[in-house]
Amino acid sequence: MRIPLATIVVTAAIAVSGCSNKGLKDIRPQGPGPDEFGILPVKPLTNPNDYSFLPAPTPGGSNLTDPTPKADAVVALGGSATALDPNKGIPSQDQALVVASSRYGVAPNTRQVVAEEDEEFRKRQGRFTRIRLFPVDRYAQAYRRESLDPYKQTDALRRQGFATPSAPPFGE
User: Fold this and answer.
1) Where is the segment annotated Disordered (predicted)?
2) Which end of the chain is more exposed for a tag (fewer CB within 10 A), N or C?
């Protein structure tokens, strides 16, 4: 029994096409993607009261239309936006808090130390979980012992008499 040459060629072409690059067919993300929280809308443009007294432009300085989310949040909560001005120093009502929180000293490299410790922790937690047949949430897997069950915490606080906000039903 002879197999026609066309059948062999078609079979070989189908077999080789299975080895091609998936390209757009691979729907898993290729990277972390954009940070949707890093994009802030600018404030609307406004006309100055007097065009003859405009401030000189400062390279690298701020603009009136630049977003100021922290100051906007303070104002929305009833505070004063000038409290966040770094040139004014610490407000008098916050002096005691700053003194109490820095009484043991302030390490200048706290963020770096915490990042290194977290990297080591994640490396220890992921030592035996590198090979998986299906994608898993590695973050939840590494920090499963440190996570809280919100429903359990809400029930415990309600039993102690604390007022708690309503929560969505379990599983949603």
Assistant:
1) 145-172
2) N
